[in-house]
Write a structure and sequence with these properties.
Shape: globular
CATH superfamily of the largest domain: Metal-dependent hydrolases
Strand content: 25-35%
Low-confidence stretches: 53-57
Radius of gyration: 24 Å
CATH topology of the largest domain: TIM Barrel
Helix content: 25-40%
Strand order of the largest sheet: 5-6-9-10-11-12-13
Structural class: alpha/beta
Distance between the termini: 35 Å
Largest sheet: 7 strands, parallel
Number of helices: 12
CATH class of the largest domain: Alpha Beta
Number of strands: 21
Length: 415
């Protein structure tokens, strides 16, 4: 039997931390050549052996990386009882990247608004980061137009939106918003953090007649009363993401803020950073907000009281999210005639058995974890049963010209 040639991986132009006894020395601008399961060489200007294309590690994700990352994130959401997401898709490095993300979303079975984004693209990342000189690539708008003609995907579960942050000059960004709105997309989103952002996103959108009920702003930490009033008057929603906002020190979570309360919902922000279940976000939001209310009462020498209810928090993770994307007539609550997006909790687990008998909302908000979610149904299809994700049929190819699903090549059984 002929020997299998060794597989090579070449890691280029990084900082390699090497040991010299108990001391660690950084070798900057060095390469590492791996042969099979062994580090073959550490040096500068290394090359792969002749005839070996190897695995050239890049700072950019490839389209297939995006597919598997997107699929994993969607399945993590479903496993955590999330049936619908607004996906601010930070991945628009090429049309192929975008198509693979949509294919993964369709394959997962989740309901989603896939918000196609405009992002600065990295040209080089070594001792410094260099961005591509072309701010908006020539393929960006044609790709959006192609997808807008083809959507919805996945039998109507996957709709198209746009995620356009103010990362470019204002005139360029506003133009992208207007071109996207001209395509009659379902939904628009961008980041808005007054505490740390140098520009006033609400004012810019308002001045250009871009604020409306099809817009959700992420975070809004530090929003002033004037901007909060504009958000409410234009029926814009804010998605608060307590986990990342508290981690990044963006300021108080606005989920229960009086000047925004009826126009807020919850998100997880980044499934690459934290859990993708909304149980965590509901619990963090209510307890943090109660703590802030308590501190203010102490400072004002007032009697402490609990004004934020668990029912308020439950609504943030359910019907308020549906309202944010103008689908509260179809999802977000259990009612005859609505879409069958349902989460079933096992009330016999050690965490739930007593609490659920006494107060089911309390049980979900304060006691439940992902392991207590027994079943998840999305659009009438079982996606989790008996506490386990159901097998996932991987879509072969998505015809992004027509939106047609071109068959399933294999099924992944989630262990």
């Amino acid at each position: 039997m002929p020997a299998i040639p060794p597989y090579h991986i070449l890691l280029r132009n990084g900082t390699v931390l090497v040991h010299e006894g108990a001391r660690v020395r950084p070798l900057r601008g060095h390469d590492v050549l791996i042969e099979g399961n062994t580090i073959k060489k550490i040096g500068q200007g290394l090359e792969l052996p002749p005839g070996d294309s190897g695995n050239m590690q890049s700072f950019n994700f490839r389209p297939d990386d995006i597919f598997w990352g997107q699929l994993t994130g969607c399945l993590q959401s479903i496993d955590g009882g999330v049936t619908t997401v607004v996906d601010h898709a930070h991945l628009s490095y090429s049309p192929e990247h975008v198509d693979e993300a949509i294919r993964a979303s369709v394959s997962s079975g989740i309901r989603t608004v896939f918000c196609y984004s405009a992002i600065p693209r990295i040209k080089n990342w070594s001792s410094k980061i260099e961005f591509e000189e072309e701010l908006v690539p020539s393929w960006w708008l044609p790709t959006l137009e192609r997808l807008a003609k083809a959507e919805p995907f996945g039998n109507g579960r996957v709709n198209l939106g746009a995620a356009i942050d103010f990362l470019f000059p204002q005139a360029v960004t506003v133009n992208l918003w207007k071109k996207s709105q001209a395509l009659n997309l379902r939904f628009f989103t961008c980041h808005y953090v007054p505490n740390v952002m140098p520009i006033n996103v609400v004012e810019i959108l308002s001045d250009n007649n871009l604020l409306g009920p099809n817009v959700v702003l992420s975070h809004a930490n530090g929003v002033c009363d004037t901007n909060a009033q504009k958000i409410v008057e234009n029926n814009v929603f804010v998605s608060a993401t307590p986990d990342t906002e508290l981690q990044m020190g963006l300021g108080d979570v606005v989920a229960f803020q009086p000047n925004l309360k009826n126009n807020t919902s919850l998100g997880v922000d980044c499934h690459s950073n934290n859990s993708a279940d909304l149980l965590t976000q509901m619990r963090l939001a209510v307890q943090h907000s109660r703590a802030q209310d308590h501190l203010r009462a102490i400072e004002n020498k007032e009697h402490c009281r609990v004004d934020i209810t668990l029912e308020d928090a439950f609504n943030l993770g359910t019907i308020q999210g549906a309202k944010a994307i103008n689908m509260d007539d179809q999802i977000g609550s259990l009612a005859e005639g609505k879409r069958a997006d349902i989460v079933v909790f096992d009330t016999t687990t050690p965490a739930m058995v007593c609490a659920a008998e006494e107060d089911p909302i309390n049980a979900i908000l304060l006691h439940a974890g992902v392991r207590d979610i027994d079943m998840v149904i999305v659009d009438g299809q079982l996606k989790k049963e008996n506490g386990r994700l159901c097998p996932v049929e991987i879509l072969d190819r998505l015809d992004s010209e027509t939106g047609a699903e071109t068959g399933y090549v294999f099924t992944v059984d989630i262990e």
